[in-house]
């Protein structure tokens, strides 16, 4: 009886999802490009949804230093209507450049002596806002289990609920990834940083999958975020590298003709220093960006098929069929994206641990002379 009711409920929901796009498509055309870029790109306001013709937007603070001094105001002061060039005018002679422009697209600019100039911009954009939210959630995820550990002894019963889940993640990553890759001394020294990397990346990935605030921000799909994480690992790896590590780079154990007079191998080894963090940056950025774009593309295909021709019957048939396929594929992609969130955080942590460990190579012991 219960299974029959569940099937009926599922069928009703599926029919509603199938019919809903018809009403939407009949009213307006869907700009797929703006939907995709609006979710992926950074912005000065946070578009949540649209009820009828009224957009639901969270306006964020703008902090800029222009030619007339410092200005702090809300992004709502920028006009929603665009001028002839597609720009959004605002106060103090500032305006948001047309997002389709090749120079400063979607950024705040001003005209100074007839030239377009970018002011000093430290605004709380959507990406920055998501970063603050993820940082607060990360502190909660760390401090709640830490509080439990302070109040209990090591031989007490294992925690349950959220604390137990966090303990499982901590022990899994610490023992299976960090400790198995690095020495005991390195694990104690660099373990906190690597654990922070894992939980920050994993939390940012998961929050990007959540389609509504406080989620919905594609933080790790922003190259600036992954660039900072990769550069930090790069600095830790090379600043703390041993003498033998640098010796193997500038004077590797290869035949002399590969090192002198043309430093062929040293150049390759030195180039490899920069490709390692680049691999961390591009891998995380590309995977998360592509996952979000594919999931949104499946949803956008529904509205594309409802406007495929001028015949209403053809549109309804094509759109209804694509709705079922798109919903199924979107659910599959969301589940796959959750798995990718964990895998990418794990891969970033594991590769960072490997790079740091390889930088602490010790000289080989000299063989005893006969």
From TrEMBL:
Keywords: ATP synthesis, Cell membrane, CF(0), Hydrogen ion transport, Ion transport, Membrane, Signal, Transmembrane, Transmembrane helix, Transport. It is found in: Cell membrane; Membrane. InterPro entries: ATP_synth_F0_asu, ATP_synth_F0_asu_bact/mt, F0_ATP_A_sf. It is a multi-pass membrane protein. Residues 1-26 form the signal peptide. The chain crosses the membrane at residues 130-149, 190-212, 219-236, 286-306, 312-332. Key component of the proton channel; it plays a direct role in the translocation of protons across the membrane. NCBIfam families: ATP_synt_6_or_A. Belongs to the ATPase A chain family. This is ATP synthase subunit a. It comes from Segatella cerevisiae.
């Amino acid at each position: 009886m219960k299974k029959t009711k569940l099937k009926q409920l599922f069928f009703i929901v599926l029919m509603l999802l199938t019919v809903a796009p018809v009403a939407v498509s009949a009213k307006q055309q869907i700009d797929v490009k703006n939907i995709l870029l609006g979710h992926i790109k950074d912005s000065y306001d946070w578009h949540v949804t649209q009820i009828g013709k009224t957009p639901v937007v969270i306006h964020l603070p703008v902090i800029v230093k222009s030619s007339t001094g410092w200005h702090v105001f809300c992004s709502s002061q920028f006009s929603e209507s665009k001028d002839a060039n597609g720009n959004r005018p605002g106060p103090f002679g500032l305006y948001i450049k047309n997002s389709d422009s090749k120079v400063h697209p979607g950024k705040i600019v001003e005209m100074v002596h007839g030239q377009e100039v970018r002011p000093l911009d430290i605004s709380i954009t959507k990406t920055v806002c998501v970063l603050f939210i993820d940082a607060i959630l990360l502190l909660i995820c760390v401090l709640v289990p830490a509080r439990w550990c302070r109040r209990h002894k090591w031989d007490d019963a294992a925690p349950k609920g959220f604390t137990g889940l966090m303990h499982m993640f901590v022990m899994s990553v610490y023992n299976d990834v960090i400790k198995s890759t690095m020495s005991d001394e390195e694990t104690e020294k660099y373990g906190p940083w690597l654990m922070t990397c894992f939980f920050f990346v994993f939390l940012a990935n998961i929050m990007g999958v959540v389609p509504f605030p406080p989620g919905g921000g594609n933080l790790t799909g922003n190259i600036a975020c992954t660039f900072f994480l990769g550069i930090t690992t790069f600095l830790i790896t090379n600043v703390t590298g041993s003498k033998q590590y640098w010796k193997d780079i500038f004077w590797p154990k290869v035949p002399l003709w590969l090192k002198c007079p043309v430093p062929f191998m040293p150049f390759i080894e030195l180039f490899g220093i920069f490709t390692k963090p680049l691999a961390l940056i591009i891998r995380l950025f590309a995977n998360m960006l592509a996952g979000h774009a594919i999931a949104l593309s499946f949803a956008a295909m529904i509205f594309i098929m409802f406007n495929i021709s001028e015949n209403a019957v053809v549109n309804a048939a094509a759109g209804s069929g694509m709705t079922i396929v798109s919903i199924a594929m979107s659910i599959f992609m969301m589940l796959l994206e959750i798995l990718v969130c964990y895998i990418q955080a794990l891969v970033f942590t594991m590769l960072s641990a490997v790079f740091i460990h390889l930088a602490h190579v010790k000289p080989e012991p000299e063989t005893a002379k006969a």
